[in-house]
């Protein structure tokens, strides 16, 4: 694992969290129970404190960083998509940040909100509950529907379950030269595909 202390501050990782061996966790970082931290995520607590609350996930290639006068926080069950950047901001409970989005200093994303992929949230933005935010700079489009929130929550539960599955079974290995006969397929615990794609074989 790539954990580094910085000026005497060591990262704090709850025993029920799972951090990929390729992630880099530095300094004043606090990771709560049931959290999933994906490969190549960088959580750099060398200016301000980073807090990832229970059941949240920080996916592959994400960056978290901040300043000394503000905590950067992902609240409970926050869902941070691949390649997103969080800098000195607060992500509300049960909110989703889409892939490759950027959330800037002092921004607050409201609980149960969704930031669309590749969106840019300007510094100082203050959101409210259940907003759908889209674009660069992002703007409010409409409220998040019950169906969209349900889809988000299914995806988040998948990552909470993935943290457990990785603790149980992820091991460094060497590759095979070719696939085995009758190679099994991985299945999640819930079906998070859009409705029109469910119950179809890959």
* Beta-strand residue percentage: 25-35%
Quote the distance from N terminus to C terminus. Answer: 34 Å
Radius of gyration (Å): 17 Å
- Biggest pleated sheet: 11 strands, parallel
Structural class: mainly beta
Low-pLDDT stretches: none
Mean pLDDT: 93
- Give helix % range: 10-25%
Order of helices and strands: EEEEEEEEEEEEEEEEEEEH
DSSP, total strands:
19
Count of DSSP helices? 1
Give the CA-based shape.
globular
Overview of this structure, please?
The protein has one helix at residues 146-169, and strands at residues 2-4, 12-13, 18-19, 24-31, 36-37, 42-52, 57-58, 63-65, 72-74, 79-80, 85-87, 90-91, 96-97, 102-103, 108-109, 114-115, 120-121, 131-135, 138-143. Strands 1, 2, 4, 6, 8, 9, 11, 12, 14, 15 and 17 form an eleven-stranded parallel sheet that branches. 12% of the residues lie in helices and 32% in strands. The mean pLDDT is 93. It has one helix and 19 strands. By secondary structure, the protein is mainly β.
């Amino acid at each position: 694992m790539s954990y580094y202390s910085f000026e005497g501050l060591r990262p704090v990782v709850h025993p029920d969290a799972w951090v990929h061996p390729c992630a880099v966790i530095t300094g004043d970082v606090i990771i709560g129970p049931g959290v999933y931290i994906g490969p190549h995520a960088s959580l750099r607590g060398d200016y301000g404190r980073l807090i990832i609350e229970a059941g949240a996930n920080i996916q592959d290639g994400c960056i978290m960083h901040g300043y000394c006068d503000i905590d950067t926080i992902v609240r409970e069950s926050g869902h941070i998509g691949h390649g997103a950047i969080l800098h000195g901001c607060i992500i509300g409970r049960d909110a989703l940040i889409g892939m490759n989005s950027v959330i800037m200093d002092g921004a607050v994303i409201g609980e149960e909100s969704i930031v669309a992929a590749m969106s840019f949230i300007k510094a100082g933005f203050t959101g409210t509950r259940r907003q759908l935010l889209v674009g660069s700079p992002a703007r409010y489009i409409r409220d998040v529907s019950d169906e969209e929130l349900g889809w988000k929550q299914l995806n988040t539960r998948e990552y909470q379950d993935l943290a457990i599955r990785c603790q149980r079974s992820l091991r460094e290995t060497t590759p095979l030269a070719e696939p085995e006969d009758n190679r099994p397929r991985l299945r999640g615990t819930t079906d998070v595909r859009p409705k029109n794609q469910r119950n179809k074989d890959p």
